[in-house]
Design goal:
The chain has 301 residues and is an alpha+beta fold. It has helices at residues 6-14, 58-70, 103-113, 153-156, 168-175, 229-241, 248-256, 289-294, and strands at residues 28-41, 77-78, 87-99, 118-125, 136-147, 160-162, 180-183, 201-204, 206-212, 215-222, 271-278. The protein folds into 2 domains: 6-125, 2-Layer Sandwich (Alpha-Beta Plaits); 136-278, 2-Layer Sandwich (Alpha-Beta Plaits). It has 8 helices and 11 strands. Strands 1, 2, 3, 4, 5, 6, 9, 10 and 11 form a 9-stranded mixed β-sheet that branches. Strands 7-8 form a two-stranded antiparallel ribbon.
Length: 301
């Protein structure tokens, strides 16, 4: 097990191991088993999803917890690499282990020892070769905007507060240009040298805007997204909602394929990975059929 980096040492320190006092060493098998799980986390406490050598990420603390629970080395795969400050309630993960523990016991131990800002909502055995990123059918990201002049520390942890009401009708008009398969280069931040030459054509299946009291939800659904794409889409729609740009400007920005013409990304804390959906039903959206029809996503039979 990897305990050599400062990040792993700090991740282990953050685990609450009192619940494991007096527990027998975990039993292992001669065969490797495949698991998958759904996890949720408050991104404000972590430096993003991806493992980093000097900072504690969600991936790092989950691996530390699962290694402690199973007594085996764990390497996680996630459905999405959320940035520092971005939250998740439906992140899908996969891992392999020789543990003899049943899935529900694994979940229970993780809930006991993980920090409260990281939760495991379900664990089950997965088909061999199942990959949470490659096998995803669609993802739902939700960006929350708090339309209030009054500070709200709790809500501002998960939303971008603006001190005025936005023109949601204009934002909806602007969003129509982004639906479908397009080159979204103008909405991608530089992902770094290793990924800079990747293609920038992606598909947005739907963008829904819904106001719930002082919270505006911007729901973006598609099979996959570029680096910071959803935050940049949200920021562009906010420019329209604030009256700084007219709705046609978003179509022009898309056609320009020039990131420098767009606004800065919307703040990270407003974004949440809500759900990842798979053809076999794992990660299935649990909201009502009415919500499903809002996305224009057909129900699988």
């Amino acid at each position: 097990m990897n305990t050599t980096t400062p990040a792993r040492a700090e991740a282990l320190r953050r685990l609450d191991l009192r619940h494991l006092a007096g527990r027998r060493p975990p039993r292992t098998l001669d065969v490797e088993r495949h698991f998958r799980a759904i996890v949720a986390y408050d991104g404000a406490d972590w430096t993003g999803w991806q493992r980093q050598p000097a900072f504690v990420s969600v991936m790092e603390v989950l691996e530390a917890a699962l290694e402690t629970a199973t007594g085996t080395a764990i390497t996680l795969r996630g459905a999405g690499r959320t940035d520092a400050g971005v939250h998740a309630v439906g992140q899908a993960i996969a891992f392999r282990s020789e543990t003899a523990l049943p899935p529900e016991a694994l979940r229970h131990i993780c809930l006991q020892i993980l920090p409260r800002s990281v939760r495991v909502s379900c664990v089950e055995e997965a088909p061999p070769g199942w990959n949470p990123q490659r096998d995803a059918v669609r993802k739902l990201y939700r960006y929350r905007v708090l339309e209030s002049a009054r500070p709200s520390p709790a809500l501002e942890r998960i939303a971008w507060r603006v001190g005025l009401a936005l023109d949601i009708g204009a934002m909806r008009d602007a969003s129509l240009a982004l639906i479908g398969r397009h080159d979204f280069r103008a909405f991608r931040n530089d992902p770094g040298r290793a990924r800079r030459d990747e293609g920038t054509v992606r598909t947005i299946e739907s963008i829904m805007l819904e106001r719930r009291l002082d919270l505006l939800h911007i729901d973006v659904v598609g099979p996959g997204f570029l680096y910071m794409m959803v935050r940049n889409v949200s920021a562009a729609l906010m420019e329209v909602g604030r009256g700084h740009r007219d709705p046609a400007w978003v179509a022009g920005l898309l056609g320009s394929r020039d990131r420098k013409l767009g606004p800065a990304p919307a703040p990270a804390q407003g974004l949440t990975l809500e759900n990842v959906e798979y053809a076999d039903g794992f990660g299935q959206v649990t909201e009502s059929d009415a919500t499903r029809s809002r996305w224009n996503v057909p129900r699988r039979r």
